[in-house]
Amino acid sequence: MILAVRDSATMLRRQLRHMSRSLSMLLMLLAVPIVFLLLFVFVLGGTLGDGLGGGTGGRAAYVAYVTPGILLITIAGAVQGTAIAVALDMTEGIIARFRTMAIARVSVLTGHVLGSLLHVLASLAVVLGVAVLIGFRPGATAVGWLAAVGLLTATTVALVWLAVGMGLAARTVAGASNLATPLTLLPLFGSGFVPADSMPAGLRWFAEHQPFTPIMEALRGLLLGTPVGTATAVVAVGWCVVIALVGYGWAKWLYNRDRTR
Amino acid sequence: MTNTSTGPAIAVTGLRRSYGAQVVLDGIDLHVPEGTVFSLLGPNGAGKTTVVQILSTLIRADSGEARVGGHDVLRDPDRVRAAIGVTGQFSAVDDFLTGEENLLLMGDLNHLCRAEGRRRAAVLLERFGLGEAARKAGAVYSGGMRRRLDLAMGLMGDPRVVFLDEPTTGLDPRSRRDMWQIVRDLVADGVTVFLTTQYLEEADQLSDRIALLDRGGIVAEGTPAELKRLVPGGHVELRFADVPALTEAAVLLGVSPDPADESLVLRVPGDGGVRALKALLDRLDAAAIEVDGLAVHTPDLDDVFFAVTAAEEVTSR
Ligand SMILES: Nc1ncnc2c1ncn2[C@@H]1O[C@H](COP(=O)(O)OP(=O)(O)O)[C@@H](O)[C@H]1O
Ligand SMILES: [Mg+2]
Q1: Is the pTM of this model over 0.90?
Q2: Ligand 1 pocket test: which of B17, B18, B24 has the largest number of ligand atoms within 8 Å of its C-beta?
C-alpha cells in the first residue's frame, strides 16, 4: 500500500514533466472553453439571456446561466487530452518496461489521473477567472463554494478515469480523441447553454436524463447561491460515483489484460 | 565452466506458447548458470522475443515452468521483477524525459533513496558515455545512445539477471563493439546475461553457452566450441584456371571435386594453419600445377546454423 502511494507519486512527477513539455497542447485545450464562453456571452448572450425568462435578462443573466456549462466543457476538453496522452503513452516502449518492474501496476494510470486532476483544477480556475472578468457574479456562500469545488472535483475524477479507459481501449491517438469527443458535446445537449424545456421533445428527454444536466444544475445552484433540489444533488453525485467506478474498473481491466503485442 | 555451488539463474522446462493456431514455442528447456552469458540465437520470427517476454513476466506461457533468479515467473512475478533488468527489442526510453531523468525515474521505481538514485545515475551515465547527453531529451538520442540508455535504465535496480533482446540489431559496428564491452563488464561483475541475437558472431564473441532456436524448438545447445564441433572441420578452397588443372590436383591430393560445382574449385579438408598451407602449396608446386586462387575457411557458427537447420528441413519433410 505504501509502495503503491510512492509509485503513484513517482508516476505523477513523470506526468507533470510530460505536461510541462507539452504546454502548447494544454493551452489549446484551455482556449476552447474560453472561446466558447466569449462566443456565447458576447455574440449570443444578449438574445439567449432575454429568452431565459424571469430576472433582468440580457447578457448579465446569460453569463450567470452559462458558466457551469462552460466549466463542464473545460473538464471534458481536458480529459480528452488525458485520453490522448494515455493512448500515446501506451504506444511507448517504456510501458512494457514498467510491466517488468516490481511496482504497483496501476500506478501508471494513477499518475495520469492525478496529473489530469491538477491540470483540470488549474484550468477551471482560469476559466472561472475569465467568467468573472466578463461579468459573472457568483453568490455562493463559503459552504457553497466548498460544495461546488467538491462537485467539480468529483466530476473530474469520474471523467478522467473514463478517459483513461478510452485511451487504453483506443490503441491509437486518433481513436482516443474520437472516443472522447462525445464528452465535449454532452454539455451542449443538456441544460448547459439553454434550458432543456426549450428543446424539442426527443432532445429534451435526452437532455433531462443525461448525466451532465443534473451536475450542471447543481453547480449552477451552488455557484449562484440559489437553492439546489435534493433530487438533483443526489442524481449529480450518483452519476459521478457510477462513472468513476465504471471508468476505474474498465481502465484497470484493460491495463491488466495479458497484452501480447 | 559451470559452477556447481550456485543455483541456476534461469531454469526453463517444457515451455510452450501459441498465438492462435500458430505454435511459437513448442516445448523449450533452458538452463543458465549464474554469472554466465547465455545467447539465444535464431532467425527473425523464431520466437526469441516471446521467450524473453515470458521470462520477464510480460506474457504468460501456455504451459511449462520457468524460474528466474530462483523464483517462479507465474507464482512469484514480483520477486522475479525485482531480480531482473530488461532491455527489450524495442526502445523503452521515455522520449519526453532527459537521459538523466529517465534514470532517476528508474531509481524512484526501484525504491532507492534520492541520494542513491542520483549516485547510480551518475555512475551509469559516465560508464555508458552518456554524460554529455544527460540533460538532452531521449527523443534526440542516436540509435547507439538510446540502446545504452535503455540498458542503463535496466541496470538502475542492480539486477542479478539481465535480459537483452537483440541488443545490437541496427547498430553501427562501433556501437556494437561498445555494447559487447558493456556485456563483458556486466559479467565480470557477476551478473547473469541472457541475450538474444541473430548474429552468430555476436553469440560466438560473448557467450558461455548458446542455444539455437528454430521453428519453436532448441535445435542445438552448447558452448561455442561444442557447437562448432557439430559441423565438419575447416577446409582450404583452391581455385584453378581450367578443368585439366583441377582434375590433376584432385588426383594428386586425393579429393574428389564437387560434381555439382562448376566453378573449378576444390575443397581440401584442413585447418588452414600456415604450416599445412605451405605444405599443400609445395606439393602442388612440385607437381607443376598452377593455382589461380586460394581461400581458407575455418568453421564458424554459420556452418553450425546451416548444418542444423538444413538437417531439420530434411527431417521435417
Ligand atoms: N502478439 C502476437 N500476436 C500474434 N503473433 C505473434 C505475436 N507476437 C509474436 N507473434 C509471432 O510469433 C512468432 C515469434 O515472434 P518473436 O518471438 O517476436 O520472434 P523473434 O523475436 O525471434 O523475431 C512470429 O511468427 C510472430 O509473428
Ligand atoms: Mg524479437
Answers
A1: no
A2: B24
